[in-house]
Recover the amino acids of this structure.
């Protein structure tokens, strides 16, 4: 999907409520470098980042101004051109079960200046983004979060989890010693040239992944200005299969060491593997680099095959974290966009404080798992019926969250006996959802 929505006007309801507090809510003119620079510096300050250099502003100006860039300004301040709040949003493609994707409104850069916190500005921004997305016909909003305490109140639910891994290289021995293909160091330019294409092939089959924008590939490979230490330390290794075709990359840095040179830490910043051979060879590579005691990797899948490949799975300490949060806006469109496992008739009684997803919906799937979704008043007798908030439905949507956990925790109520078993059977995704980037 192209980003046709970048100029969509800000939501009038939020504009009116912010105006009551003498705050102006509007789009940033991203053709104006100075206006964009003010917005970007406010965004960086909001995340406790540095004051950005001209070079950094230029690279963002080239890299992210295709997005809908929104600010809130307080004209009573001595620097009225610097926004006191920011957001950035764009239309994304989110992979869903069945090798399909759904259009989703990606929301990022949500900041409110500490000088203006807890006056309801973020609420106006978030509700404004949701109303705008619904207005543009987008069935879902998505975001990755700085804190897991903020977004459930707006109807978001965590749907994709990630693991941060710490691996003790002295205990991490592979069960199999079979080696195929070759690994070699390559340049950042080669990575940029080849990795996105490989990623695109993987993305389509991994629920939870989104299209990765080109500036993110530059950041991963150390090509953006501003973090010279990262750029200097970054190494990239490519895996080629026995036919010489590139099938994966690992981007990593080795740091530390000190007096004891055997004590280095290797950080995997990105590992991309198109098939099992590439996956095994790249993990084997990083785990066998000499003089390294610990390998760390963030944002890995919560279902890494690596743990099954090692003779001692306790070599790996995995810390799970909620990563991608979803917010369904249009239930029939969202439920129709994915495929399911087998036939069922399921009723959803959905509550939504903001109204978008409120109502009763019937999902009927056939033997092939193809859906038919209707909005109805009363559920038929044969339906397995559950009652849940839009946040819980959003968590379940990609098939990576266990229904029984949400029933046991009180997030989902079974209105017919064993409804959760039916829901689990058809919703569960055979591929564990995973999102390999922040946005
Ligand atoms: C998708 C992303 O970009 S994630 C990044 C989020 N941004 C950050 O973490 C940057 C640092 N933090 C901030 O900039 C701000 O503190 C924000 C954006 C998190 C909140 O902005 P504020 O304008 O202070 O929030 P606002 O006053 O609108 O609060 C709205 C509601 O969220 C709650 N809330 C706000 N911040 C938090 C928080 N950090 N933790 C828990 N609840 C919070 C408020 O209590 C309020 O609740 P209620 O309306 O249900 O009673």
């Amino acid at each position: 999907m192209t980003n046709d929505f970048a100029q969509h006007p800000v939501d009038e309801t939020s504009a009116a409520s912010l105006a009551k507090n003498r705050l102006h809510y509007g789009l940033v003119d991203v053709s104006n470098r100075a206006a964009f620079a003010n917005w970007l510096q406010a965004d960086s300050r909001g995340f406790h980042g540095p004051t950005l250099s001209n070079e950094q502003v230029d690279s963002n100006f080239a890299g992210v101004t295709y997005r809908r860039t929104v600010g809130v300004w307080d004209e009573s301040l001595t620097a009225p051109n610097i926004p006191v709040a920011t957001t950035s949003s764009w239309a994304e493609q989110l992979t869903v079960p069945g090798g399909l994707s759904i259009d989703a409104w990606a929301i990022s850069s949500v900041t409110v200046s500490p000088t203006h916190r807890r006056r309801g500005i973020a609420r106006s921004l978030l509700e404004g983004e949701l109303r705008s997305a619904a207005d543009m016909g987008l069935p879902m909003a998505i975001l990755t979060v700085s804190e897991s305490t903020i977004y459930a109140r707006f109807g978001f639910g965590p749907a994709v989890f990630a693991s941060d891994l710490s691996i003790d290289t002295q205990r991490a021995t592979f069960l199999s010693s079979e080696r195929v293909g070759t690994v070699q160091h390559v340049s950042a330019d080669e990575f940029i040239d080849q990795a996105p294409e490989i990623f695109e092939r993987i993305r389509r089959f991994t629920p939870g992944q989104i299209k990765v924008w080109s500036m993110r590939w530059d950041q991963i490979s150390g090509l953006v200005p501003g973090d010279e230490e990262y750029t200097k330390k970054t190494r990239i290794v490519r895996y080629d299969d026995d036919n010489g075709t590139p099938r994966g990359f690992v981007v990593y840095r080795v740091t530390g060491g000190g007096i004891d040179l055997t004590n280095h830490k290797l950080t995997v910043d990105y590992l991309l593997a198109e098939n099992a051979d590439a996956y095994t060879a790249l993990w084997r590579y990083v785990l066998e680099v000499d003089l390294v005691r610990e390998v760390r990797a963030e944002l890995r899948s919560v279902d890494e095959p690596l743990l099954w490949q090692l003779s001692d799975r306790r070599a790996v300490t995995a810390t799970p974290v909620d990563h991608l949060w979803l917010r369904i806006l249009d239930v029939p469109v969202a439920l129709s966009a994915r495929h399911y496992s087998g036939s069922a008739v399921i009723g959803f009684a959905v509550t939504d404080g903001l109204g978008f997803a409120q109502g009763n919906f019937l999902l009927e799937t056939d033997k092939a798992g193809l859906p038919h979704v209707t909005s109805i008043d009363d559920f038929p007798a044969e339906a397995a019926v559950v009652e849940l908030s839009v946040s819980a439905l959003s968590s379940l949507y990609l098939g990576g969250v266990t229904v029984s956990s949400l029933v046991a925790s009180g997030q989902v109520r079974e209105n017919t006996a064993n409804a959760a078993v039916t829901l689990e059977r058809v919703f569960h995704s055979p591929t564990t959802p995973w999102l390999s980037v922040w946005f």
